[in-house]
Amino acid sequence: MKPYVYITRKLPEETIVDLTELFEVKMWDHEDIPAPREVILKEAQKASALITMLSDKVDEEVLSAGESLKVVANLAVGFDNIDLEAATKRGIIVTNTPDVLTETTADLTFSLLMASARRIVEAAEYIKAGKWGGWSPYLLAGHDVFGKTIGIVGMGKIGEAVARRAKGFGMEILYHNRSQKHEAEKELCAVYSSFEDLVTKADFVVSLAPLTEETRNLFTADVFAKMKKNAIFINAGRGPVMDEQALYDALKNGEIAAAGLDVFEKEPISADHPLLELPNVTAIPHIGSASTETRTTMIKLCGANVKAVLTGDSPKTIVNKEVLQ
């Protein structure tokens, strides 16, 4: 009997050929609608491998649903949706998709920064609504990007890639991270900063921090109050690192100038979400790595990891390496 692989979203058949040739593979019927929890639980009872998305909660109940599960391949860099400790105790390998999406996500992050600074989305909606009656000096005037100070919170590979883009715009680069990045400091003239100094000095505060107990609710009302009044907050990392109500209040009250958000506390958000009411919020639906090329590469990496585990090889990008010891 072939090992059984379950995929929690509908993926293009051509991206999973290596799996369908070797294993029994089943996918959820929808690309943009998450597989219900009861479906994931049912499929986990017989699955040897799960290919999951960041929105899928893979907790102990899922991990212990059956006896055959050997690998959970997450289609993301992050894996805070997976109970890593429970998986490790059960000898289940967890993999992710780092590196292959670094440059794509950095492109999106800097695009979001620029769109927020220059009010691109607001301006596009303005002209589509037929409001453009003529030229005026301060019509939809935004903020310069070149020569400003960017503060990057979470200086991983994506953070470094964003810093390289910032250097091209002649920006002063501050960063805060669990550890100093000496090579980045040499290459990019980036300056290591305390979190408090960064948020008070930066014109653009960019969060790329992973979600941990230390970073959850990192951006509070007190933090937003310390930022410059013309500061722009960008979050392309994890939604729960920010207090959304505090961000709303800061934007509404003019404590900061604008925000660009690719992530939210709870996703997806509805059209009546309070932040969407504000004209100085540029909001997009968690599309950091969403280029056709990168998403295809991510899917194939998940498939390669599953194939490796189920055929007795080591996966390329394992999160819990202690399982192999």
TrEMBL record:
Residues 6-320 form the D-isomer specific 2-hydroxyacid dehydrogenase catalytic domain. Gene3D superfamilies: NAD(P)-binding Rossmann-like Domain (3.40.50.720). One of its GO terms (molecular function) is NAD binding. It comes from the Bacteria. GO terms for cellular component: cytosol. InterPro entries: D-isomer_2-hydroxyacid_DH (IPR050223), D-isomer_2_OHA_DH_cat_dom (IPR006139), D-isomer_DH_CS (IPR029753), D-isomer_DH_CS1 (IPR029752), D-isomer_DH_NAD-bd (IPR006140), NAD(P)-bd_dom_sf (IPR036291). The keyword Oxidoreductase applies. Keywords: Oxidoreductase, Pyruvate. Residues 111-288 form the D-isomer specific 2-hydroxyacid dehydrogenase NAD-binding domain. Its EC number is 1.1.1.26, 1.1.1.79, 1.1.1.81. CDD domains: GDH. Pfam families: 2-Hacid_dh, 2-Hacid_dh_C. The keyword Methyltransferase does not apply. Belongs to the D-isomer specific 2-hydroxyacid dehydrogenase family. PANTHER family: 2-HYDROXYACID DEHYDROGENASE-RELATED, GLYOXYLATE_HYDROXYPYRUVATE REDUCTASE B. This is Glyoxylate reductase /glyoxylate reductase /hydroxypyruvate reductase. It comes from Mesobacillus selenatarsenatis (strain DSM 18680 / JCM 14380 / FERM P-15431 / SF-1). The lineage of its organism: Bacteria, Bacillati, Bacillota, Bacilli, Bacillales.
